[in-house]
Amino acid sequence: MIALLVKSSFILGIAWLFYKAVLQRESFFAVNRMYFWAVLLLAFVLPFVSLPPLVTHQGYLSTIFSANEVTEQSEGTSAVVTSHSQQALPKDTPQEMQKEVLSQQTAKEATALSAKSAGEETTSAPKSWTFWLLVLYLFGVGIFTLNLLFQLGSVWLKIYSSHDTISDTGYTIVNLPQLKAPHSFFRYIFIHPDAYDFETYEQIISHEKIHVRLRHTWDLLLAELVGIVLWFNPIMWLLKQEMEKNIEYQTDDLLLRGHEVDKETYQWSLLQIAAPHKPLTITTNYNQSLLKQRIRMINAKKSTMHNYWKYAFMLPLFFGVLLVINKPIESQATALIGYVGARDQQTPVITAPVVSPTPTPVITATPTPRVTAVTTPTATPEVNANPNLSVNVNTKTSFSFNFRSDVDMSTGYWYGRQVDKEYCIEFKGGNNTRTSYWNMSECFDKSLFVKKASDSFTLTRDAGTMTLQGALDQEVSQGKYTFAKDAGFESYLEKNDITNTDKNFLFHLFMGNVDRKYVAFLKANYQDIDGERIQELAIHGITQTDYQLYLSMFDKYAQKKPSMREVIEARIHGVTQEYIQELQEAGYKDLSMRKIMELKIHGVTRKYIDGLKAAGFADLPVDQILEAKIHGIDAASAKDIRALGFGDLSLRKMIELKIHGINAEYISDLGKAGFKNLELDKIMEAKIHGINAEEAKNIRALGYGDMSLNKMIEIKIHGINSDFIKDLNNGGFKNLELDKVLDAKIHGVNASYLKDLADVGFKNLEFDKVLEAKIHGVTADFIKEARKKGYSPKEFDEYIRLKIHGMASRRNSD
To answer: Hey, how many other C-beta atoms are within 10 angstroms of the C-beta on 741?
Structure first.
């Protein structure tokens, strides 16, 4: 459920960004309305759509989400925590004696565990953080649901309690006794008629009738419902605001295009009826807190048909979203089995923690096989394996190995060479030596093989027997192999309720050397053992010795017995005793296993921690170090910023700077542009608003040498650049104060407007007079129209008064 909510939020975030960046300024309001409907529905459809494997790291969002979610899963008697100590043996102890000691120790631990489990009452485990997060989420859903029901009830109460209604064709006008902003809900239009003159009243009714005709209430209800589900996501509420704006833009546009009202009169009407009594959010309303945007859109240039090309980018956009949020279809995925290890690439050394006075030896995990290529008959002949196996918490098997279960690995080809006392063998499958379904390698002790004939060698383990046809004892050799399952071992697994539908299950256990002792050890620690989990242990090369070491690590640092899933995760992410000691030496002791794993996943090392300390960030909490690593904070960039006069720079502030893309070069450039001795918060504000040093220099060069950064930010917000100021200069307004430049930009006084006035005979006007004319809508077209109607004042002021009072009334007074 959490994964669905995260994915839906991600989709809406991308959709909102695309709208704001590409579609917001277009006047295709009907198309934009369809866009909003589409994204709200796609947000809950796309998370269930998977594509075939097309790119590397496909489903990256799912991988990150699942990798950070370590479920508190009990796979046995989770209330019992046992301590697994590894008794030291002399270095020259024979291998058989080591196995015997290990077997005895395992039996003792199993007996102790059973006795302890029988003697203690099972206590219920505390609720996990995901449980409380779910409770908080459902609480929010309940609150917002009640809010929606309250609004619906309020609307219906007004409808059924009102005795002053007017029925029109397809509409019902409900006259309200109190002053509230006009609004509509489905076919009902609510208005306080005594507050408006007849002309304004007719405009409002016409406006609301368009809302009713276009069924805009459905838009708002859909947004409300999605808002309930995603109440925690601020992007959803921003998207809802854009939907509300769009339906108002659409209504205004249709009303004016139908010539039902005059544009100028309509805009004055919007300003005149502004009322503080805001209606419910589920109703379309004539007067909202977006009057400025509506008036700007009314006067904006309409989009042409050529701008429809922008909507074509929706297809690649949401296709890309699919690639990011969802993993590829498993049944069509390229088969990749991620064995870790081989002679030349061994697994990390895992040192057992000291749990007794007897010193514990350093035990190196045994080499494990690695599958380096698996292809399908229709795919390219060779595909590199991905060693980073992804976590998939949504399925029973937590790790997705991306192999095709229909590939038969019991027969194939082998290629060998001798290295000291070992045979290093590469196994391949397929119909011939050129087209491989998979490819793995492992080094075996020579003594493990039995020579049956001059060109036949066998290796027998509990899971089965591998027979190699060929001269294995030669320096370099090759041939065919066959693997035969051991029926007795297969029956043993079934009796212990360990099953797996993968036809290569026993082959994997053979390669991982999972035997009866290993299974018995797991059964002694867990009530139920999943066959898929055991297969994962084999694939990741986790031997019984390795597993005991992980149990000791979790017991020491997590005070719990780990699930098999958690052990596999620790192995995948390379959490070793050496890494834990490295963190402790850096000053971070008593860390939980979850936190250690999180640090390892994000690549936090002692070298990185020491680098932060050297940069002046001392005594940092581990979560802040993790955050710094995630955001790419490095010691060198911190030193550079400190050198610019920010000696007291904190790591928290450094992270904020990094998030906004601020580095030493940006700060230095601002200083060169004349903005010196700035506070970091002001620098961040400048970056957020897109202030760059080059543009600041250009504006200063136009005569604004004393311009402050605050003023630069203000003119940037209003879209003023050096080109706009140059155009005003060329139009005759030189050396204007920046506040007047701002007035010009806000009210639309630009080079084009000045040229139009000059064309009708008005040049060298005062700025304040031009601004007044623009505010009142005096344009060149208006002046031409007035002249055609017989008005010919010589003074520009007369045209302004003519516009304010209307041409008809002015002519009558003449």
So the answer is: 23
Q: Is 633 helix (H, G, I), strand (E, B) or coil?
A: coil
Crossing angle, helix 738-747 and helix 767-775, to 10 degrees? 30
> In the structure encoding, which two tokens stand for residue 97, read together?
């004696």
**Who contacts 300 (Cβ-Cβ below 8 Å, separation ≥6)?**
25, 27
Residue type at position 686: A
Measuring CA to CA, which residue among 66, 80, 83, 84 is closest to residue 125?
80
Tell me: the pLDDT tens digits for 550-562? 999 888 888 889 9
Comparing 92 with 627, the larger pLDDT belongs to: 627
pLDDT over 80 (residue 59) = no
Band of pLDDT at residue 53, cut at 50, 70 and 90: confident
Residues 6+ apart with CB under 8 A from 430: 412, 413, 436, 437
What span, in angstroms and rounded, lies between the C-alpha atoms of 715 and 728? 15
d(CA 467, CA 457): 6
Give the list of residues 6+ apart from residue 322 with CB closer than 8 angstroms, or none. Answer: 46, 49, 50, 51
CB 593 within 8 Å of CB 562: yes
**pLDDT tops 80 at residue 464:** yes
Counting beta carbons within 10 angstroms of the beta carbon of residue 690, is it exposed (0 to 12), middle (13 to 18) or buried (19 or more)? exposed
Q: What is the pLDDT of residues 601-635, one digit of tens each?
A: 999 999 999 999 988 888 889 999 999 999 999 98
Q: Which residues contact 390 (CB under 8 A, 6 or more apart)?
A: 59, 62, 63, 66, 67, 327, 399, 400
CA pair distance 537, 547, nearest whole angstrom: 9
CB of 746 within 8 A of CB of 718?
yes
* Model confidence, pTM: 0.47
pLDDT digits (tens, 9 = 90+) for 380-432: 333 333 333 333 333 333 333 334 456 888 999 999 999 999 999 999 876 54
For residue 77, pLDDT over 60 is answered with no
Identify the sign of the CA torsion 277, 278, 284, 290: positive
Q: What is the distance, to the nearest Å, from the Cα of residue 531 to the centroid of all Cα atoms in its chain?
A: 33
Q: Which of 169-178, 368-377, 417-426, 600-609 has the lowest mean pLDDT?
A: 368-377
d(CA 283, CA 224): 11
CB 567 within 8 A of CB 542: yes
Contact yes or no for 438/374 (Cβ under 8 A):
yes
Given a cut of 70, whether residue 445 has pLDDT beyond it is yes
| Phi and psi angles of residue 426, each rounded to the nearest 5 degrees, phi first | -105, 125
Q: Residue 469: which of 444, 452, 485 has the closest Cα?
A: 452
For residue 344, what are the CA distances in angstroms to 419, 440, 441? 11, 13, 10
